[in-house]
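Below: protein 1.
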Amino acid sequence: MTKTALRVQALLLMLLIPLAAAPPKKNPLATLTEVTGTVEIQRGQVWERLYPLQPLFPGDTIRVGQGSQAILMYFGASSESIEEAQSPYVVTDKKAKSGQRNNVNKKIGLIVQKLIRGEEERTSVLTTRSMPYKTERLRVLQPDGTSVLFLSDFIRLKWSGGLPPYHLTILSLGKQGREANVLEKDVKDTSLDVPLSSLPEDTYFRWQVTSGEQQGSGTFHVLSRTASESINAELSEIMQQIPQRNAATRYLIKYGYMVDHALLYDANKVLVEAKERFPEDETFKKLSIH
């Protein structure tokens, strides 16, 4: 073997040995869905503040201060309340597996995992962002690119920019791209409540707003009554697994479920209601985008 070949072989061994010796990457087991007061996680010799929706791994140690509380949820398991009396609390595989008893718990786990992986970024299309008022710009904010449950009383169309009066048109999208005018109305405000009963179910819609020479548009899909009832039934089954006392967690799971089913408009309504009820909750502060 030549000297060059020996050098190459030695270099490859140097690169492969660290890879072979590296410990396997751990998968997160849980996260916090509610935090009240002071809750910390140990990082080496230091205790750091622990916030909701941070991934928790096997061996993570949690400390809860006096009068504080954390609701921890293992993926695929039921939630667990941790108070000062349970501190220090160690996240373990055994505790994670103990709750994996039914498909509903697994669904809850999947919802939470998607939230901590950054799925909450999709809420950027849900909420109205504060922005400088520019008369030359008209922008449709919501709903756009979302499905909507048919069971609601009405759908609120919202936009910003431009100057009144606004001319609003809703068009249903049929087969072969054919459009039919469903509603046409002049509006003075930057929103309009449209009764869902006036819109055909299981239909896609395009809507547009005109202000002078400026125009904005959006799209949404109204689910069928049957599909809406099926979704609500599954969500109700999931909610039965979460204690009533864990109200913030219930809102979080409901929000995550709606987002996972592309019901962004309905998810935003859940988030707005949660923020009104829990204005200081760190979970909803993280999910909200203004």
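Below: protein 2.
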Amino acid sequence: MGFSIAPPFWWAQEFKPSKEKLIGVELWMFKSDSPPSGVKITVSIRDSLNGNDLTVATVNADPISASGTWVLFDFKDISVTPENTYYIVCRSSGGSGSNIYCWFFNRYNSYDRGIAWMSINNGSTWDDLENYDPNYPQIDFCFKTFNSKSKTKPFIFNSNILDCLFERFPNTLKMIRQLLGF
């Protein structure tokens, strides 16, 4: 499941880094129906939801698949303070109705070092998604962050990424369990 990334909707995930550098993030995203070609998705890092962008990256969303794609936002390296709170803020340049891109989320506080946020007015005001909808309690978005050593070794990983996959594709869990023998 995921939330629509289309103006005026912005989404954010609060997180606490464990290293002093941040060089990129990956978000697990998917497309719904037929978004227009050329939509740009922008991700920034902030130290407060209404603060300035500490760094920002924009990608063309066209390669994002309907089944889900890890999308890398590779930005200028920044120094962060371990254990301080930061925000991954995500927005897009287009899409409407069901022809949009979405950011996968998981329920039941799968990432216990921060909560998810939403803005329905292009980031002017924010509401937390912790208990926003009883059908989707304690939401966290699916993400990875990377430090200055390698973009292939995350230092924060949403530990229940597989839950997101299994909610969207329930038969996948059965196949993986059979392959791994558990």
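The chain has one domain: 2-180.
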